[in-house]
């Protein structure tokens, strides 16, 4: 983002999907042809004969992408959404591991995994895209947070969204969106673990020291990224997560404003990263200037008011001395003081 890094975290997984984030890492077992047939019958809604014929044609415990697509179209037309969702999710995988269907059974609990990324955007970026709510947070009865949002087809294309994202400021972000959801998902300190996560042979870095503002801490210049290929024992690191938490938050302090950063953070970030989606004009310097953000109001409602006023004034190229906009500039100063 123009103002620093953000990431999908374990806390997002816990609150949006109500999936467990503790326990040992899962290593999938080898799948026999018999089990591949059984899983297709149970989770993809095909007959025993269809499943046996297809698996036999694959000469192993595999499913072809074309077959999964045909199943997806069929089940979608029949409004068999659980089967359609599993077929669709398997098509998204670079390698169609059959055992992926077992985690996908969460769709039976009415959690729309396909929209989980969109829901993450709705939670953190209220000014981006269209947000439709299915409920009021105080009346959600403990359901997964992802069910709060209803899908609304937007009209903006990728080229339209890029400048919108480049113009976002820290006050456009709800940095800690789940505080009113803690009655159903208490914050788990394991979310502050820094290390590698593992699923079977897949290992990915989980670098919490790069998005501390999402946890109420002041963002500092993080440590160099982990090389997960050099990790010795990921399972042990995961079990002893307290050690990494001490290292992560011991170098920071609790933020006094939601988007607070150390003085040298943005300079470092603009030096090592690519903070803008749109490249500068050909006749402009390639160097992108580091923005200077106002501290802004601490109250999220006042922050929203401040953002809207500031955005309008910027769009019309208003100046402080212009009497036509004096009232708006006064309103902007008032909103920033709260």
UniProtKB/TrEMBL annotation:
The Aminotransferase-like plant mobile domain, residue ranges: 118-269
The name this protein goes by in its record: Aminotransferase-like plant mobile domain-containing protein
Coiled coil region boundaries: none
Highest taxon of source: Eukaryota
GO biological process, one term: meristem maintenance
UniProt source species: Pisum sativum (Garden pea)
UniProt cross-references to Pfam families, sorted A to Z: PMD
